[in-house]
Each structure stands twice: as structure tokens, then as C-alpha cells.
Specification:
77% helix; single chain
Length: 342
Amino acid sequence: MVKRSAGRREKFQEIRVDVGGVDSWDSSLLLFVSQIRKYAAELNVPCNMENLPDLLRNLLEQAGESESAGGSQDAMAGPSLLVVLGERFEKTLAGGGQWLTFWGECLLGGLRMARRWRKFRWRDCLIFMQQAGAMGLPIVGLISFLVGLILAYQAAIQLREYGAEIFVANLVGLSVVREMGPMMTAVILAGRTGASFAAQIGNMKMNEEIDALETLGVHPMDFLVLPRMVALVMMAPLLTIYANLLGILGGYVVGVGQLEISSSAYWYQSQEAIGLNDLAGGLIKSVLFGVVVAAAGCLRGLQSDRSSEGVGRATTSAVVTAIFLIIVLDAGFAVLFERVGI
């Protein structure tokens, strides 16, 4: 039974369910009454269900409790595992496609630069070389010196038991030249220069400067990416050589000052341990590390959202991506050098 207002027929005053004349019923009545109650809740009018069998009223209460509990659990549970995995897989594929597109544009930009090298922005490249190279010498030198010092101390702990402290020079020299020098230089470049590239390009995108360049017919790859990439490719090997020297010097300080190894003996052992293949392998790594750091910084900057928060996320992502790729490349080089006997 439904009561309506006198003036407005479309507005219910009350919805009353009366099943007093029903002798037998099944679950269809329960579903029907439950739908009436939901309809009354949507209209925001009272629903009078006093004249209902006790069993039907109890079933309605249980159904209402299960619906509310199920709704809260669904809201708290969030998406299922398959949905999350599918979204992650889709994002991974999209990210891989963006990387392939970026490398293809870099290749085309390199070909354009080779044909029209006089139009290349060498002045910008020199500025980036100064920022990445000369201004990075203090931090690279300090970190490399400390790494060499730590390696020497750790090697001395084990070699002292066998009376072979002189081989500290061998261990420090090989470790720094083959692994620690190129890797620590690349990590510092990722945290210092790669993040700077991402922030600079991200700010340009937020201020619509990149859109202005494209409107003027200037390709962002030629104007923004290639000068930065060339700068890092040229400075990474030089910084690696500098890091190698400081790392060996750190080991020298420990070997001569703490282990009482003579200066001439330490340098002789270092020269005997370090070969030309070791130095060349480290420099080859440094070149590719420089390419990876520049590419990660520039790509994340181009992918940045047009907001300050988006620029911050792009900067963080550039550092994380660069360090991850550096570790992966270094592991690949370790396997390759072992197979070819370097």
C-alpha cells in the first residue's frame, strides 16, 4: 500500500508493504521486498514493513547486513591481483615502446647532426660539458678516493692473515679500474647530471617552451637531447680516468701509511696488475653509462607532466631508471668480458 501527498502525486509520503493475506511464499518474495526497500531508500521516504512474517523480516535483516559488509569489503579490497598485474604489464609495454621511439629519434637526430654538423649547438654542448665534467670533479674525486680507501682497508683484513699485504695494490687497482671507477662515476652522474637534465626539460615542458619549439619547426631532439647526450659521452670517460686515479690514490694512502708498504712497491704492483685491456674495458663501460644517464634524464623530462609535482616525479624516475640500467649494463659487461677473456 502506497500513500501519496495530496498536492503532488509523484512524491511518496510512505511506502508500506502488506503481505498479510499471503499464506505461502518463497525467495522471490524476499527479493521483491528487498527491491522495494532499496527503492524507498533511493526516494528517501520511509518504508513500513511492520506487517511481515517474522521469518521474512529476519531474512531481510540478514540480507541487509551482508550487503553492507560486502560493499565495505569491496571498497577496502580494491582491484584484484590480476587487474594490478595487467595494468603493470600494460605500463611496461608502453614504457618499452616509448624507449624504442626515443632511441629511434636519437638515431635520426644523430644522422641529421652528421649531415649538418655546423648547425649543431656546440655552445650548449660546451656548457653541459662544464656542468657535468668540471663542476663534478670535487664530488667524483672525493667519492672515488674514499672508495679506494675502503677497498684497501677491507682487502687488508683478509690478506694480512696470509702475510700478503702487498697484494692490496693489485686488488684495489683492478677493482677500481674495472668496476668501481666507471660505476661510481656513472652513479654520481645519474644523481647529479641526469636529474638536472630531467628537471630542466620538465620545466621547459611545463612552461610550454617545447611546444613553442615545435611550432617554430625546431625538433626538440636536436635542440635539447643531442647536446646533452654528446656532452655526457665526452665527459664520462674523462671523469672515469680521474676517478680511477683518485681511487688508486686512496688505496695508496692506506697501503703506504697503514700497511707500511713502500711507495715504489705499491706502484709497481699496481702497474703489474692493471693491463691495457682492463683500462679499455672500463672506458667502454663509461661511454655507454654516459649514454644511458643522458637518455634517462632527457626521456623522463620529455615524459614529465605539466606541473611541479610531475617535474619532481620525472626527476626521481630519471635517477632510478639510470641507476637500474647502469647495474644491468655492468652485469652484462661482466658476463661478456668473462667470455671473451678480458
